[in-house]
Design a protein that fits this description.
Layout (H helix, E strand, L loop, with lengths): L2 E4 L5 E4 L3 E4 H9 L5 E6 L5 E5 L2 E2 L3 H13 L4 E4 L4 H13 L4 H8 L7 H9 L3 H25 L4 E4 L6
Parallel strand pairs: 3-8
Antiparallel strand pairs: 1-2, 4-5, 4-7, 5-6
């Protein structure tokens, strides 16, 4: 595989052929809003690297090596900005808005107005196994779409491995 430096200002490396990215790893990076984690995509290998509180999640021996690699080749690693709470909230709202049963729709909208809306929504939807399965399918579809959008926005030609089995 050949690589080229694209956009001298940003000095970001771009693979001239497709890279393969593990779907679950990319989704985890896009969904993770923890201040203790950061994720980077290795533009040469397609590997998603997770950091924990400025320490890399790999073994202690690998931490310094990985940190050094990112410092030496910052153009090779692209920071993955996670979806914000508003974007995650909007996914839930879209799902709830498509529910036909007015009583059920109201029961699933109410948790969104409470403290910890994500947790209370998940607690509420667990009372409805059939709807929960529809929610999971909808959620997985949205994450796939948003993952592909993120790749396109960043000019990355990639194939998502195990996208069909994720979720």
């Amino acid at each position: 595989m050949q690589y080229r430096i694209e956009n001298n200002r940003e000095k970001r490396i771009t693979a001239m052929s497709k890279i393969t990215i593990e779907f679950g790893d990319l989704v985890a990076a896009l969904e993770n809003n923890s201040n203790e984690h950061a994720h980077y995509l290795d533009l040469k290998t397609g590997t998603v690297i997770r950091t924990v509180a400025d320490r890399f999640s790999e073994s202690i021996e690998d931490t310094d090596q990985i940190h050094s690699m990112i410092e030496q080749e910052p153009y090779r690693y692209l920071a993955i900005t996670p979806m914000g709470s508003a974007e995650r909230y909007a996914i839930i709202e879209q799902f709830v808005d498509h529910i036909q049963d007015a009583r059920l729709k109201e029961q699933l909208k109410t948790p969104l107005m409470k403290k910890k809306p994500f947790r209370t929504f998940n607690d509420a939807i667990n009372n409805y196994p059939e709807i929960r399965e529809k929610w999971r399918a909808f959620h997985d579809g949205e994450l796939t779409r948003r993952s592909l959008d993120w790749l396109e926005e960043n000019g990355i030609d990639a194939e998502l491995a195990n996208a069909a089995s994720a979720g």
